[in-house]
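Person: Please comment on this record:
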Amino acid sequence: MPTSSQAPNGLPSTEQLLIAGGDARLALDPLSGRNKYGCQPLPDPQLLSFSSSTASIISAEGFDAANRLRQTLLTAIATSSHAAVYSREMQRIRREWLQLCGLSDLSGLELVFCSSGTDLHAVAAQYTASEAPVPPLLIMVEANETGSGVAAALTGTENNAVEVEQVSIRLNDGMPRPPAEIDAEIENLAAKAAASNRRMLLILVDQSKTGLIAPSPACAMALHRRYPNNIEVLVDACQFRIATSTLRAYLEQGFMVALTGSKFLNGPSFSATLLLPPNAAKRLQQRALPRGLLPRSFRADWPDAWRGAEQLTHAANFGLLLRCEVALTELRRFRAVPEPAIVEFIHTFAEAVHQRLMSDPYFEPLPSPLLDRRPLIAADCWDQLPTIFPFLLYAPQSAGRRLLNREQTQQVYQKLPFAVDYADAKTASIRCQLGQPVACGIRNGIAISALRLCLSSRLITEAAADNDRGISVIKEAMKVLDKVALLISYASRTKKTALL
C-alpha cells in the first residue's frame, strides 16, 4: 500500500525514501541491513551482482540520481504541496519512460504507475472482474515461475469470485514442458470459459524466473482474435528483458504489458508500470474504477483523464518516485548502447557461462527453449538471446556426484553475499549475489531448486564501456561460480552442513 513519504521538516534521507512507499518486503532486517531480496538501499561496489532476475543492489549512478531528485523535491515542496510536486514529477517520468521505450507516438497509449509487479497484476485482475456478469477466469503459468504473491493478487478482487488456473511450464524433473502442450492446455481452458460466456484474463509471461516464455505469443494472439469479447491479455514482462520492437509489437496486438524497474534494469525493488494500449484502455475506462484499487494508488499514478481516478487520494509517494527515477536512469544508460554491441556481448557471455556450467562437476545447466516470439515479431533483436542462466548444484563424490536438494541450495545461496573464513582466502572473500533459488521439480526423490546467474542492463552497459569487450564482466561471473563451488566443496569436506 502506498504511503505519503513526508517528514515534518522536509523529507527523509535518500536511503530511507528508497525503502518507503511499498510494503513489508522492503523492510530492512535489523541484523543484516538487507531487505527480503538481500539488498540494501545503498551502493555496494565490492559486491558482484548477477541476481537481476530477483533484485540487485542499487548502483552508484542510480543512488546519485535519487539523491539529486530528493534535493529537487526539497526545493519544490518549499513553495508547492507534496501532491502537486509528486504529480509534476510523475508526469515527467511518464513522458521520458514512453520516449525511451519508443512509444511516444502511440496515440491513446496509457501508463499507470504501481509500487510492484504484484500490484500491476492486481490492477489488471480487478478490472477484468469489475462488473463481470459471471465470475471471471484468470489463466497464468505456475506461480513459482512468476512470483509467489501474484496468484494471491489475482484472487484479491473485491465482490467477485475469481477462479485462477495455473499451468505448469516445466515437467516434474525441471525440464521444459513442450510449448505445444502448454498452449493446448490454455486453449482448452479458454474454450470452456468462452462457452460459459466468462470474462478471462490470460497472462503471458515474457520471461519467467528461469527465462521461459509461456504461453506462446501465437497462442495468445489466436485466443485474443477468437474471443474478442471475453479475453484480455496481460504480458508479464516484469523482468524487462524485452526490446523496444517487441514491446511495441505486444501493444499493437492490443495486449496490456507489465514492466518493473527492479529486475533487468537494476533499479531498487518496487517500481512498476502498466502499459495500456488504446483499445484496452478504452474498454477498461467504460467500467467503474474497482474499489480495491483505491488503497493501492495515488491520483498522480494514473493518467490525467482516466475515468474514475478522481476518487484516488491526492498525495505523494516519494519513495516510488525515487525508485522510478533510478530505473529511468538505468534505462537511459542502456538505451545509449548500440544494439550490435549488446548482441555481441550477450553471445560471448552466454557461450562462456554455458561452457562453464556444462564442464564443471558442481553444476548442471537447467535447459530452456529458444526465445521464440514468432509470429508476433521475427526481428533479430537482443531479447532473443538468453540473459537468465538457471543451474542445479552438485556435490562431487568419489563415486560420482550428488544433487543438492532445495534446503542445501538455499544454504549456499544465503552465504554468497558474505566473505567466509576458508583456506582459499581469495575466492572465499568474494561477496556476490545470484538470483534466488527457484523450485523446479523432483529428481530421484529429491526436491530441487535452481540458482540463476543473470545479465542485467548495468552489466551490459559496463561491458560495452570496457576496452576489453566485456571480458572483465565474464571473469566476474566466473568468480561467482568459483565461490559457489567452493561453498559446496568446503561443506562436503568438513561435513558442516547436510550437503552429503
In short: The mean pLDDT is 91. The chain has two domains: 82-331, 338-494. Residues 342 and 460 are 7 Å apart (CA to CA). The radius of gyration is 23 Å.
